[in-house]
Amino acid sequence: QVQLVESGGGLVQAGASLRLSCAASGRTGSVDAMGWFRQAPGKERDFIARINWIAGVTYYADSVKGRFTISRDNAKNVVYLQMNSLKPEDTAVYYCAAMYLGNWNYWGQGTQVTVSS
To answer: What percent of the chain has pLDDT over 70?
Structure first.
């Protein structure tokens, strides 16, 4: 089992920055990758970014490419999502997830990000 706890959400104005954190605990040695997803009201949960746990290779959704950066601190078992130039359409609940054997098996409880115009 892997436990994930997100933090860092909040209310900001358009153009501002936020950094989300995801602290992982438990069997983190079995994790292939960590990722961030988001879900806006009435919409499906969408993939935002992913980072391979060992190699550090990153992938981004087109909607956030160039504005968001995912990174990790393996020693602390923490994954970050640096979000710059935030837009109102970035408003959503942001979830951290851990991939195991090719599936996103573990999820955090989510953290709310609200961007006002």
So the answer is: 100
